[in-house]
Amino acid sequence: MPYPATVSAGRDPRLDFFRGVALVMIFVNHVPGNFLEGITSKNFGFSDAAEAFVLMSGMSAGLAYSSAYARDRVQAIARVLRRARHLYGVHLLTTGLAVIILMSAHHFLGTAALSDRVNLEAYLSAPWMTTLGVVAMTHQLGYFNILPLYILLLAATPVFLAIASSSRSALLTVSVSVWAVAGFYNINLPNFPTEGMWFLNPFSWQLIFCIGLCAGMASKKREAFVGYNSTLMFASLAYLAFSLFVIQGQRYDLTNWGDHPAILVGFDKGILPLPRLLHVLALTYVISQFGVFRRIAADTRLGAVTLLGKQGLAVFAWGSLICIVLQVIREAYTVPLLLDASTLAAGLAAQYTVANRLQQAKISSRGGPAHAT
Fold this sequence. Notes:
The protein is mainly alpha-helical. The protein contains 17 helices and no strands. The relative contact order is 0.16.
């Protein structure tokens, strides 16, 4: 029988642990065709690691900024915007390095098909206009879509906090309304200089971020955002089972739903449709209510995963660049299974090394022992 995990005075280990899990799955999924791709979460339900990552980003924002916002709004807003500026700098740097890698591969290894898949062609035909688009975040390389979304959501966090500080219910009401209007009327931000819209619609994805933000604010106050309810638990488990049945059995055509609104019955990741939204929320609810997940997250033998979650931005940035390198290798050469496994393992090891060094530096700067916890 599940029981609600108690709210402790310390940092909930589940946040860093499951963010680490999400980062590992994002890394694996961003190297399409590898032998581990089939065991990531996208193969067992409607949502994938991206939804989980954005939800936990909202939780982190609620934990990090809600109390500060209540004390001093000006200082809190300045902190949020400095963080958004830092994320923007990381996005520009990683995108620039990725373009160099992809351009080199395009000219010297003949990876034209990869260039087309990751939206590099605009650099080849209109490099200066495309660079302007990158600066404005209106042109995004394939697999580099999450950070622009996160930057925009973080920049909007002061507005979210202003509403939620008066009423979290009001924020959720506004957020659901924006999600619904954007989904029904296809409201999105435009790309430039290429045609089309953002791959991850920020007007849609703000909902999952705001849900996470409210959960983080509740946790900061030692409150349960959604308490245990047997009916809700049964419904969540049933929906997760149904999602698994559909995905594993391929029982339905997930791309053709006729005249039904895509936001209600579709599976287009970009607009965060209801089936995907409900899946990540059901999964989060189950994890939050079974105490075993807290014990798993706190297990020191899994500390490497938690460490990745603690240094999420650096891990994500390095992981994105490593993914591009691995995609180039797979495009240019035939990759046997052993090499496939070795390169993935090396990529994960590199991310762990980065996270460990940053954690050591963080601990040392605080006067503690120079080792990761």
